[in-house]
Amino acid sequence: MSDIVVPRELTLPLTNGRSLTVWAELNHGQYIAMLSRMYTESKGGELKRDVLKTTDATVIAYLIDWTLTDPQGARIPVRGLPPDDVQDALNNLRQATALEVKRAIEAHHATVEAAGEALKKTESSDDSSTRPLPSASAAA
């Protein structure tokens, strides 16, 4: 298995035939950018998690595009926009729509995190360097 994240898009369905296009997996840089949007630094240099920004930071990290529309029925553009502009688009959504987007992406993020944890367990159990060497008495 490669140690490099190959960018891969995934479609998450929403209600009413709408959908989200998200990253299947974040690379390290995307993950750090997500964390930087979640935390603020105090005057003393201490990092504090801003619980009000946590979900939006996850959405912004994963979201590539969506099929959401404005009142005239035109698609709301988000593909390729800077994170602050994606935040503005999120801020303008109806609360019910924003919650649906957030829940879909949070569920995807939880699935990605769980898969990563499972992979670590599998890799560590398959790693022969962590297995004990046979004892001299077992060889005799």
Helix and strand arrangement:
Layout: E1 9-13, E2 19-23, H1 28-38, E3 39-41, E4 47-49, H2 51-62, E5 63-66, H3 83-91, H4 95-126, H5 136-139
Antiparallel strand pairs: 1-2, 2-5, 3-4
Question: Your description of this structure?
Answer:
Helices cover 49% and strands 14% of the residues. It has 140 residues and is α+β, with helices and mostly antiparallel strands. The chain has one domain. A three-stranded antiparallel beta sheet has the order 1-2-5. Strands 3-4 form a two-stranded antiparallel ribbon. The longest helix has 32 residues, at 95-126. It is globular, with a radius of gyration of 21 Å. The model is unreliable at 135-140 (pLDDT under 50).
**Succession of helices and strands:** EEHEEHEHHH
Strand order of the largest sheet: 1-2-5
| Class based on secondary structure composition and strand pairing | alpha+beta
Q: Roughly what fraction of the amino acids lie in strands?
A: 5-15%
| Rg from alpha-carbon coordinates | 21 Å
Poorly predicted regions are 135-140
| Count of discrete structural domains | 1
Q: What fraction, in percent, of the residue positions are helical?
A: 40-55%
Q: Main beta sheet, described?
A: 3 strands, antiparallel
What would you say about this model in short?
The protein is of the alpha+beta class and 140 residues long. It is built from five helices and five strands.
